[in-house]
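Two proteins were folded this term; both appear here.
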Amino acid sequence: MRIIVNPAAAVGRVGREWARVAPMLKELGFEGETVFTERPWHAIALAEQAVRDGHQQVVAVGGDGTVCQAAAGLYRSGGGTLGVLPLGTGNDIARTLGIPLDIREAAQVVLDGHRREVDLIRVGEHLALNAIGVGLLGDINTRAARIKRVRGIIGYLGVALVSLVKFESPPVVLETPDRRYEGAMTILAVHGGPSTGGGFILAPRAVPDDGLLDATLVPGIGPLGRLPRLVAAMKGLQVDTPLGKITYRALDHQSTMGAYVGRIGKKDGRGVMTSFSYSDGAKFLPSDDEVKKLRPAE
């Protein structure tokens, strides 16, 4: 076993807490070499090297990004199994796979040898687990990655505000055997599992091992229309828009808009949306009790 730790995960919390976590894992029976990521995307190379060195099991310690990179490294190496110790901010991969968010319980899942095959999302040469975001989501993440002085939620909110104003919804064409969408796109979320962003459900019917990806498309909303609707939603109002209602959930400060929801299959070797229809986002909001069960105790 080789344990890959991302000390930068959860805004550096993993690095700060590793001195406490490591003895606990040893006490539970974890035996293996520990290596630490030193730069972005480093976990890919570390996982690939682990298999080359003869380790058939790699355990990723960190957030969803660390887990995705470790999975990509195993895929490149052609072998190995991946264990997940969720210590990130969102931990949606653990939620999707039913891995406990409690670190002791998650460690026991690894030690007990529970295994499950899951679908991978491939975009060009890149691989991901659970979900990818295109459009506004990608713009926010790209801007956030450039921040050098301000990290964490403050920096993220700052770049999100900039993206809300500056992001230009590009024209896209989505074709299926029986449908075609041509128009502006604000967000395209492609999911193997139901949630992203720490439990925010964008693809409620997604199953991580059914060989299909679910997609949610939010059509174009101009810069002048985004901020007023966001402000109104944050005040707890339900706002009517051309996309349907924006519904605000006070429990976790999430706002949900209507969207085109569909499934992705293959046609001539390429991924295409096989069907999609418009859905009111409010219909897919879980109850407050369900949200509380998904989220770790504060």
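Next, the second protein.
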Amino acid sequence: MTTGDVCPGCFENQPVAGICAACRHVDDEVKDPLPISTRLHNRYVVGKALGAGGFGITYLCYDANTDTKVAIKEYMPADFAWRQNLSVGARTKQLEGHFDQGLAKFEREAEILSTQGSQNLNLVKVSDVFRENNTAYFVMEYLGTETLYRYVEQSGPLAFEDAYAVLSRVMDGLHYVHSRLGMIHRDVSPQNICILPDGRVKLIDFGQAKAEFKGSRGEKRSQVVFKDGYSPPENYDRAYNGAERASDVYSLAATFCFVMTGEEPPAANTRLIMTMQGESDPLTPLLQRIPERRARAALSLGMSLKMSERFPEVREFQRAIRPREPGEPTGPLPFGGGASPVPPPLPPLPSPPQTGSWQQPPGPSPAPPPPPFPTATSQAPFNPAPPPFSPAPPPFTAAPPSFTPAQAPFPAPPAFAAPAPTREPIPAWGVWVAVCAVGLLSCLVGGYALWANTHDGLLAGLVSAFSLVFAFWLYSLFRMKSEAG
């Protein structure tokens, strides 16, 4: 194929009046792309821009050596790079360090994908990495434009089992990226999952991939890259510089949510702000539209705003959201508690699903209907075999009834009568104190009066004694009356 007789955007048809009937290519909407028909590495002819992300631009290109279409990713960070003619460079002198550091990382991780990533069938193949125009490029197989996002937009949400059958391939590929390549994708979304005509599913766009390491809050990043609805909250934080597997788990769970509901989840920063203000999480109503309890619980944990509450590994999330096999007992979910049982190993991957091909797995066999109630005209079937011998039961002897004498009617309870009020007796010691006080006072007063008038001490003593006896008599009389009353 020669590039002169085809559309420079899609390399398919001859444009009529400058407009291709296949791709309707007129002009690129991507900011500052390479010019159409630019030749790279003396081999690849640049076509239209397929898309742009935070770290670069992806082009549809034509490989003159193999006569095939390829996709090429160019390192072109939009926030701090610009293009002069074909050459790419940092916008300012202060940003040159960030540009060079990002360029080296982009090239290094592209080399890892080209040497090791091709061993997994669920990842896009990287065939070439090279430097040109003061930047770096890596060449990938071109998988077409049918993405999972586009499929759901056109055909509607998928059932739980169909969604798992499609995304289980993505989970296998992402697990390989984490465990074998030591990288974090950081851009898992329905737009970056391609569906091939033969039913294969592949994860693409590793332009934002980053080597895994535990994050910390320190020096601010030069660029924050996120995709609303699919990026976890830590991707919005300029002070967070880590790359951990739980971040990809969040994006994977958000992709599941979109595939099963047909609606993109709310942005993580919006959820964070609303929950911090005491409002309800806007993700909850979306999850309630998913009928499967197992899926709702797994997605809720997978999309937790706190990284420590998410599944730390893709495999753990895959086991948690795996549809239950026919006949598998229902019980506590295989996550969210120490006493939960360990889930069984994953079954072999099923064949690629077709739309509407899934059927409800058979449940337990229904119980047989009860036998018809016998009628007067029904007869028992003939049974030539004699019934088995059984000894005759002992004769029934009724126990004599026990005699219970008649009982007199229970007397009515007496009418309630309030108790008569009682008077507390005067304490003895109080009475004795009063008597002694009266007697002594009488003695003193009487004796003093007689002695003052007569100066007769004997008479004064007799009067005092009489007064004491009179006081004792009064005490005795008062005591008898108090005891009688």
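The chain has three domains: 3-141, 148-321, 428-484. Residues 331-387, 389-393, 396-420 have pLDDT under 50 and may be disordered. These notes refer to the second protein only.
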